[in-house]
Amino acid sequence: MKGAVTALGHLGGQEAAARVVDGRLEELLIADGPLGPGAILRGRLGRPVKGLGGAFLDLPSGASGFLRQTNGLRPGDGVVVQVSGVAEAGKALPVGTRLLLKGRLAIVTPGAPGVNPARGMRDADIRAALVEMAEAALAAADDGTGIILRSAAEHADAEAVRAEIAALLATAAALSPDGPPALLHAAPGPHAVARRDWPDTDLLAEGPRAFADHGVEDLIDALRDPVATLGRGAHMAVEATRALVAVDVNTGPDGSPAAGLKANLDAARELPRQLRLRGLGGQIVVDFAPMPKRDRGTVEQALRAAFRREDAGVVLAGWTPLGNFELQRRRDRRPLTEVLDGVPG
């Protein structure tokens, strides 16, 4: 169907949410437990590890975290951190001290004072009124916390914005580094994240038949194949190895330089979506189809524009001496293959 559909269901026995736009799967979230990305924890700092630029933390339930920002902290200190990604097998959870308490209308930022309205707000009067409201809430808190006003706040009832800010500030005020390791704020589940972050939807479907009724199961099943079609006979294979994610772009039957450039541009625009849906991150190496060296700048521009819209931290490292392109993407979710193991195709 045309339009945006948000489907709230389950996949592999786990809570899951999918966003489909004009019949195309754009987003897929699968539950990762209370210690998943976004969880806020109190940990106990260990000794710095030479060569790694950080220190391990003791976290609740026997978990271990790794923190890179340790300035001003000493071994044994209690510290409040937020899970920033998914741990690789056998490795510590990546955590950071920059905290974000997200709501549908606002985001509270402990330790980062100030009020920042979203760039998407168009009405200057509404924006000014919301900023004034947020500044008044911060003045009452007086603890160095900040507020980001999300675009959805522009079209919301003012009292709803005020109430959400008050609730988020109360949660922030309760975050204390004093005490034993503990889970202070569980990671939000996929359904909660979808309701919070995907407000522009034409249809919200929820229940045991949500995925089946809206074709989500078939769209997910297609991701079992590492090959993604690009049009005009071109395709790219996206395959994860132990060390990195390898992406191979092919033009298909047309091996001309013009076809190579077209396939590479299509692949550059499609790559963020494929990595996001497949839950792939870490080091990524792209072997683009053969093209004149002069066209590399055009392809790189397309890559930068495509990844600019992504929430996951991405570093575009550039071209290697052998002509491949390297980038790094934060592991912000579990690989889809792990979830689909045991789920009938």
Which regions contain 5 or more consecutive residues with pLDDT less than 50?
Answer: none
Q: What percentage of residues falls in helices of 4 or more residues?
A: 25-40%
Count of domain modules: 4
- From the structure provided, what is the oligomeric state, counting identical versus distinct chains? single chain
pLDDT average, as an integer? 94
Give the percentage of residues in beta strands: 25-35%
First-residue to last-residue Cα separation:
23 Å
Radius of gyration: 22 Å
The number of helices is 8
CATH C-level name of the largest domain: Alpha Beta
- Overall structural class, as computed from helix and strand content, comes to alpha+beta
SSE run? EEEEEEEEEEEHEHEHEHHEEEHEHEEH
In CATH terms, what is the fold-level topology of the largest domain?
Aminopeptidase
Shape: globular
Largest beta-sheet characterization: 6 strands, mixed
Biggest sheet: strands side by side, in what order? 15-16-17-18-20-19
What does it look like?
- By secondary structure, the chain is an alpha+beta fold.
- The protein has four domains: 4-31 and 195-217; 44-96, no CATH class; 103-174, 2-Layer Sandwich (Ribosomal Protein S5, domain 2); 225-340, Aminopeptidase.
- Helix content is 26%, strand content 32%.
- It is built from eight helices and 20 strands.
- The protein has helices spanning 124-141, 158-173, 190-197, 210-213, 216-221, 257-278, 296-307, 336-340, and strands at 4-11, 14-21, 24-30, 40-49, 54-58, 64-67, 78-83, 93-96, 101-102, 106-109, 114-117, 146-149, 182-185, 203-206, 227-231, 234-240, 245-250, 282-287, 314-319, 325-329.
- The strands form four sheets. The protein has a six-stranded mixed β-sheet. Strands 4-5-6-8-7 form a five-stranded mixed β-barrel. Strands 3-2-1-14 form a four-stranded mixed β-sheet.
- The longest helix has 22 residues, at 257-278.
